[in-house]
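Forgive a beginner's question, but might I ask you for the amino acids of a protein and the tokens describing how it folds?
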Amino acid sequence: MKRMVLRRRCSPPNDPAHPDYQYYFTPRNCLSYGNQVYNNTIHGFADGIRIYPLIAENTIIRNNALSGWTRPNGSICHYNANNGTCPPLSAELIADHNVSEGDFGFADLQNLDFHLMENSPLINAGFNLGLLNGYDFEGILRPQGAEYDIGAYEFPQP
């Protein structure tokens, strides 16, 4: 795999009973580089984003909202399969403008509604991705304000 771009997705909890569970994957024994993981809202996993050592080189992770993760240091995990830990991120991986703690300002987290409320700290807090990601999960033009919003949904400005 040479390039994997994950963007503008909302992930349900990692539950084998969930109807979309069959679409989750864990890359193994593959060579991958130059990946971009941006503008996702990921909730309810042990790790927010798990990167295996083979795919860290030139990987960029930006503008992601990572809530409900349970592994220590697991919001973005450069996973060590030998001992099941998440050591510090390597220098070859760029991870910025991601939010993994605090009040996200989601409309209704209990019901997995990840739209942003008017007072969300994720509004105008993202990295400007230019034409790389011009629309949110629902097709709303980005950015609506001064900067990109973090997560899958852009808060619509009046």
The two ends are 41 Å apart (CA to CA).
